[in-house]
Design brief:
Length: 201
Amino acid sequence: MAPVDNGAQTETKDQATTSTTAATDPYNVEAAEILASSAQHMPIAQAAPIYEQILSLFPTASKFWKQYAEAHMAVNNDDAIKQIFSRCLLNCLHVPLWRCYIRFIRKVNEKKGAEGQDEIRKAFDFMLGYVGADMASGPVWMEYITFLKSLPAQTAQEESIRMTAIRKTYQKAIITPTHHVEQLWREYEHFENSVSQRTHI
């Protein structure tokens, strides 16, 4: 007689209990979180209906939208990811979800040259227009500045445009009350000092 796997039995029992709880009390947040957690370990074809069920009940729960998007990102379902973000971003002004969005935009555009760089820049501007004033947006400002600094400049005019964009972004970032404002101030001062030194060489 084969030994009984008590761990598997317990897990199955827990899942059944969670499903029952979700059915009898669909707005039970704890049950929804357990279901979402279990969905993270499923193939996307099985996980998607679970996420859809959860999000029909919690349409502004950015945590679940982020998990749903990341599940599709793991298997490169770009069209599905775009649809998810189009459904949730403007209703969920939550920095981690928007950083997930920018990560996706960078991934699909990073090998498209100047056109891709422009799309990424537009996406950053779009994101900062909605969550740039959030106290937790400091890393977003820093990521955007790092991106701007990485852009190639072949001519003096392009370099001037790039430096102006970096300066304007720093100046917006340092007047935004985020958790990283002091670090941004220090980086901005260093940036201006380095520009001044190059100018006087």
